[in-house]
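>> Question from a student workshop board

For tomorrow's exercise we were told to take the sequence and the ligand below, predict the bound structure, and bring the output to class. My setup keeps failing. Could a helper post the expected result so I can at least see what it should look like? The ligand is zinc ion.
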Amino acid sequence: MAKKEKLSKAKGGARWTVLGAGSILPRRGYGCSGYALEPTPGGPVTLFDCGPGTLRSMAEAGLELSALTRIVISHFHLDHCLDLFALGFARTNPAFDAPPLELIGPVGLQHYIEGAAAALGNSPARGFLGVRFLEVEPSGKIASREFEDYKLSTVATYHTLQALAWRADLAGGGSVTYSGDTGEEPMVGTLAQKSGFFFCECSFPEELGQPNHLTPAGAGRLAAHADCATLVLTHFYPSCDPERARVEAAKFFKGEILLAQDRSVFELAGDRTGEGCS
Ligand SMILES: [Zn+2]
Ligand SMILES: [Zn+2]
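>> Workshop helper replied:
Here is what the output should look like for this input. Compare the format with yours to find the bug.
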C-alpha cells in the first residue's frame, strides 16, 4: 500500500483513517479496532472505537491528540475500548492541553469509565471530568442524531447485549458505516443501505466461523443486503487471510471490495475509484 501517496490525495473532503484493522490477537499490520473520521482533513477528529494501540496509531497517521473531540464506541470489549483509559490518563498530563471531548456509546459507558478507577486508580477517570457522555440504548430500530458535520445513526448488532453498529452521513457528502463486531444481523446491512463505504468485520474464515462474528461470506451477504458502493473488510483475526476473505466475500457482494490495513486512508466523498487500500 502506498500510504503516503494516499494521504497526499486528500483534497479537502472527509477522510477516514483505519487505525487498527485487526483483533485482540497480535498480528503485524493489524492492530486493535480504531478508526478516525475527519469531516475536514486537519480539523476535529472523531474516533470510532479506541482499542489498545489506537493513540499510538493516531500519531503514526499524523493525527493530533489535541484534535480529538469525539469518540464513538461500538461495545465494551477491550480490543475496542482499552485506550480510552490511556487517553483519560493522557488528558491529566500537565503537558497536554486537553480539548473538550464527547463520548458516545452504549448505555453504561460512563459507568464503564468511572468503574475503571477501582483497578486503574483515579487518574484515567479524572481525565474524563467535564466530558459530555451521550449513551444509546441498543435497539433493533435505527436511531439517528444530527451533529454539526454529520448525522450519526446506530443499530444494535447483538454481538453483546450492548453492541452497536454506527453510520456517519457527512454534511459535505459521503457516508460510512462501521459494523463494530456483529454476527450476520440483517439490520446492520440495513444501517449500511447505499452507504459509500461499509467497513465490515470479518473475523474468522468460513471453517472457523462463530455465531457472534462474521466470516467473509457473511460480510459479503450483509454488504449485498446493504447495496453499498464499497465493502471494506476489517477486524481480521490472525486466522483470517485478507486476500482469501476478499474472494469469499465476492461470491455474495458484486461491488468493490477493499481490504483494511492499519493506517489505510479513505476519501469518503467524490470519485472513490482507486482510493483506499486495495
Ligand atoms: Zn467484540
Ligand atoms: Zn472485536
